[in-house]
Design goal:
This protein is α+β, with helices and mostly antiparallel strands. About 15% of the residues lie in helices and about 35% in strands. It contains 2 helices and 7 strands; from the N terminus they run ααβββββββ. The protein has helices at about 5-25, 55-60; strands spanning about 65-70, 75-85, 100-105, 115-125, 125-135, 135-140, 140-150. A 7-stranded antiparallel sheet has the order 5-4-1-2-3-7-6. The longest helix has 18 residues, at about 5-25. The N and C termini lie far apart (about 70 Å).
């Protein structure tokens, strides 16, 4: 004899609904189409604030993520390696960004960028935007380039 109650029926239904919701998510676990790694594309749909106007806290979440930069020799992949907050007591308080910072990108051993000009960026979840990059430098065999976001 099988005993069923309203409580067991509701719990069973919730488990089924929760399982279906998790199965439909693409944010956790791996994705069969892409192997689980989001790839930057020019057609990405931006989520959250536009990065050129975003605060350092929004950029903090992206440290370690990949960007595609369109350079003189084509597209190059770069990783947001670090952020460094700038402390400047003489900075006007009425600027759009509360905390200025440096964003350093690691391009591996690639030297496809010269720097000292504006480049087109693309990120898998933030879409496309333009950003001025300083001159590139070589540190321990890696090409680094820094943007100042004031």
């Amino acid at each position: 004899m099988t005993y069923s109650s309203r409580r067991s029926f509701m719990v069973g239904g919730l488990v089924v609904v929760a399982g279906a919701g998790v199965a439909g998510c693409s944010g956790g676990g791996s994705s069969s189409a892409t192997g689980g790694t989001p790839t930057p594309t020019a057609a990405a749909t931006p989520s959250g604030p536009i990065l050129t106007a975003a605060e350092v806290s929004d950029w903090d979440k992206l440290v370690g993520s990949s960007f595609i930069i369109s350079g003189e020799l084509g597209k190059v992949s770069a990783t947001l390696a670090s952020l460094e907050r700038i402390t400047d007591a003489t900075r006007p308080a009425d600027l759009a960004r509360h905390q200025p910072f440096f964003a350093t990108f690691d391009m591996g051993q690639s030297t496809a960028l010269v720097g000292g000009k504006t480049y087109s960026f693309s990120h898998a979840t933030k879409g496309s935007f333009d950003l001025f990059l300083g001159l590139t430098s070589q540190v321990q065999g890696k090409s680094l380039v820094t943007a100042t976001l004031n």
